[in-house]
Amino acid sequence: MSGLSDRERRLIAILILVAAIAFAWLAILSPIISGFEARAAERERLALVQASNQRLIDNIARLRRQAEAQKADSARFHTIAPTPEAAAEQLKDRIAALIGTAGGEVRALQDIEAGEGRIELRIEARVGEGALVPLLERLRNSEPLLIVTALSIAAPGADPAAQSSQANQLDVRIDVAASHSPA
User: Fold this and answer.
1) Packing angle, helices 84-101 and 132-141, rounded to 10
2) Are 158 and 140 contacting, i.e. CB atoms less than 8 angstroms apart?
3) Based on CB atoms within 10 Å of each CB, which residue in 42, 45, 141, 176 is the most buried?
4) Is the C-alpha dihedral spanning 88, 84, 153, 76 positive or negative?
5) What is the dihedral of CA 134, 138, 141, 142, to 10 degrees?
6) In sequence order, what are the residues at sequence separation of 6 or more whose Cβ sits closer than 8 angstroms to the Cβ of residue 59?
7) CB of 172 within 8 A of CB of 151?
8) pTM of the entire structure?
């Protein structure tokens, strides 16, 4: 009972060898291999970041040109003035001039409360029937760009004597909005 057979000794030696290999794998080689894999993944991520950064660097000149073009083009879209009040006055003068060239008469121009970076005006005017559409076209095509938010059209009073002197005249109320940018 004291001795193990050769076969049993070989089996125990093989089991000890397998245990030693498993221990070496789990304790020594596995962390080293996972470290290599982690560093390889990090290198790959850094290579992608570097490629992305290189594309941005290559595009800087193009992006700068686009930004300068947009800045130069901003006058098409914004009323440029130091304050919203000054911008509103510029807009009032411009609209009064447009109505005057259409043969109309400005009755009232007033500010409407607007959000930050916006100007809104209400214009009351009397224009000829044939001048209304060209006036609206000029408002739509003028720069900086305007948005007509409301339009109300009425024929002057029902008095026959007044109608003969104001034939083909329309009372219009136009609400317009524009964006404002400080100078």
Assistant:
1) 140
2) no
3) 176
4) positive
5) 180
6) none
7) yes
8) 0.56
| Interatomic CA distance for residues 87 and 94, integer angstroms | 11
66 or 142: which carries more pLDDT confidence?
A: 66
Question: How do residues 38-81 score in pLDDT, each as one tens digit?
Answer: 999 999 999 999 999 999 999 999 989 998 888 877 777 777 88
* 112's tokens: 């409407």
State how far the Cα of 139 lies from the Cα of 97, in Å rounded to an integer. Answer: 11
**pLDDT of 108 above 60:** yes
Task: Name residues whose C-beta falls within 8 Å of residue 114's C-beta, 6 or more positions apart in sequence.
Answer: 120, 177
Structure tokens of 118? Answer: 């916006």
Task: Decide if 87 contacts 78 (C-beta within 8 A).
Answer: no
CA-nearest of 104, 112, 108, 182 to 148 is 112
CATH number of 78-181: 3.30.70.60
Q: Where are the alpha helices (DSSP H) in the chain?
A: 6-24, 30-73, 84-101, 132-141, 160-165
Cβ 148 vs Cβ 120: under 8 Å? no
User: How many Å apart are CA 95 and CA 58, to the nearest integer?
Assistant: 45
Tokens of 172: 């219009």
- What is the enclosing helix (H) or strand (E) of 27? none
Residue 92 three-state SS: helix
Residue 134 token pair: 């060209």
